[in-house]
Every structure is written in structure tokens, then in C-alpha cells.
Automatic annotation (TrEMBL):
It is found in: Cytoplasm. GO terms for cellular component: cytoplasm. SMART domains: IG (SM00409), IGc2 (SM00408). This is Ig-like domain-containing protein. InterPro entries: Ig-like_dom, Ig-like_dom_sf, Ig-like_fold, Ig_I-set, Ig_sub, Ig_sub2. The lineage of its organism: Eukaryota, Metazoa, Cnidaria, Anthozoa, Hexacorallia. Keywords: ATP-binding, Cytoplasm, Immunoglobulin domain, Nucleotide-binding, Repeat. It comes from Nematostella vectensis. GO terms for molecular function: ATP binding. Residues 18-106, 114-203 form the Ig-like domain.
Amino acid sequence: MEDIPVAQSTPLKRGEPPEFIRKLRDQFIQEKETARFVCRVIGRPDPTYEWLRGDKPITDGGRYTIMSDDEGQTLEITDCTVEDEGLYKCVSTNSSGTDTTTARLTVEAPAPKPVFASELIDKQVKEGENLSLDVKLPQEYKAEKIEWFKDNELIRDRPRFTVTSEDTRHTLTIATATFDDEGIFKCVLLNDFGIASCSAEILVEGMRRRSRDSICALEFQQELKDREVLDGDTIHFDVRITGRPEPKVVWY
């Protein structure tokens, strides 16, 4: 009996659904920087992929650059702003299935330039009393550095001077004020984007000031001058005197 050849069938390759072997990672960047999302997917047949922000597809062009190479699939977003924040996805598909990887982009805006919500004001305090100088910052602003000055000299290591901060209020307290505390006080805010300052004049009232203000030595602002006149003419002598209490003038 003659053998009849039997055709052998080639086993079909099974499809493999997409699988991300390198997933997207969250990105945290500063404004104006470039965000770069990278992932890598395998599957059979070779899967296609699509980038989305939320559920909205992203196309190559403008600030978006989409690339595919040996490293994987890449999405770059240049010149980022806070409006670019959100969830970004890469969706890969072939005839055997779909896989998705997701990451969040966070963009930090630069800190605003320093500004006061409430500035220093001139004050008058009695000798021996405590004095508080206050400034307030906007609720959303955090100062990187706050400095206090008296007569343009940085205040540091002064036993009666205390600097405190509570929420947006910053205070310089002077215990038991003396006449030496009189002067111009200044508060300075600094960050990487600028500087702001405000100032106030402080006066200290007490017996010494009242004595100083109520007594003023006599002084001739205009003295007598020699004069020549003709016989029978009228002559005037003028003087100007200052002093406190008001001086009495006697002519001789």
C-alpha cells in the first residue's frame, strides 16, 4: 500500500497583548522648564500607542514633541506653565489587547516678589513701656528671609529686642522702651525674585523729653547794630531773641 504524504501545519504564533515594561513617572518641575515622560511597551503584533492629557489626545507639534526610539516612547512638553498640570497617559493597543500607563505633571510657579499686606506705622510710646512693631504679608506669600533694622543697622543680639512670627504676622517687640530706642525702624523682605521694605519713626515720651522740649536757652537771632543818624532824626534798634520760657527784654 502506497504511503500518502501528510501535510504538516506550521503552528500559529499566539498574539501577546501590550505590556508596559517601563511605566510613566510623575513629574515635578518649575515653570518654564521642560517635562519629559518616557515609557516602553512590548507586545505581538507590535502595538501602536497614543498620548493623552486626561481624555484629550495629544498631537505632535508646538510645545509637544512625541518620539519613539530604542529607549521607548517619549512625550516632551516645553516651556511648561501651571496650566499644563494634570494627568498624562500613554495608551498602547494591538489586536490582542490594550494597556495604559499614567502619571501626573505638577508645575510650581515662581514665588511672587515680596510685598506687604500691612506696613509699619510711626509710633509714640512712653518711656518704660513695651513697644510692638508689626507687619503682615499676603496670605499666599511666604518670605524666605525677614530682617529688621534700626537706623540702617541690622538688629541682632539685643537683649530687649524680640522678633516673632505667627502665620502672616511678623513682629518686633522692644521691652521697656528708652530714649535710646528712638529712631527709624525698617523691616525688609527678601526672596529670589526681589526685595521689599517699609519703615517707621519711633518717638519715646518721658520726663527728659518734656524737660528738653519745655526749656530752650536764650539766643539772639538778631543782635544790635551800630547806627549813624542826623541830629533830630528818629532811630530804631531791633533785636530778635528766642528761648523757652519766653524771655523778658529790658533796654538800658
